[in-house]
Amino acid sequence: MEAFREIVALWERRLFFYLRRLAGDEQEAWDLLQQTWLKALRGIGSIREPRRLSAWLYTLARRAAADRIRELAADRQHRADQSELEALADESPGPEEFENAALVHRALDRLELAQREILTLFFLEDFSLADIGDILGLPPGTVKSRLHRARAALREILIREGGVS
């Protein structure tokens, strides 16, 4: 148990930030992180290569987020079928000034989930293309092309909304 506590202390912050990028809000990210740790505790004995621990933890986190996204989508569809009275919240941003980091994070939030995820893993979590491939279950060439498209989409948003050239 002490070794597992050390793993949690070492990886909790990074996994939380990764899940925060995937989840809609902070509380959801904390819930997903708890699910990730429960799965990790149950499956820690299956790790044969300690160097693969980080990719394994991110895979668990990604699966927890994907499961939750599917649950939310099914719930939304169910509510939509029951009633068409739901109003969409106006999410138009105000004319505030943002520092570069805040602007990038806001632009990331506008990307599709798959693009946001691959950029987060590569740039914010510093995973190699091969590790990202393991986490996402994709060949490295596919990761590379998706990363390229995601970077282009992010650049377009930054140019369009942030005046970045």
Structure keywords:
single chain; 165 residues; Rna Polymerase Sigma Factor, Chain: A; 2 domains; 7 helices; globular
What does this structure look like?
This protein has 165 residues and is mainly alpha-helical. The protein has 2 domains: 1-87, RNA polymerase sigma factor, region 2, helix turn helix motif (Rna Polymerase Sigma Factor, Chain: A, Orthogonal Bundle), CATH 1.10.1740; 97-165, Arc Repressor Mutant, subunit A (Orthogonal Bundle), CATH 1.10.10.10. The chain is 75% helix and 0% strand. It is built from 7 helices and no strands. The chain has helices spanning 2-22, 26-43, 53-82, 100-110, 113-124, 129-136, 140-162. It is globular, with a radius of gyration of 18 Å. Mean pLDDT is 82; it is low at 83-98.
List the helices and strands and how they pair.
Blueprint lengths: L1 H21 L3 H18 L9 H30 L17 H11 L2 H12 L4 H8 L3 H23 L3
Helix pairs in contact: 1-2, 1-3, 2-3, 3-6, 4-7, 5-7, 6-7
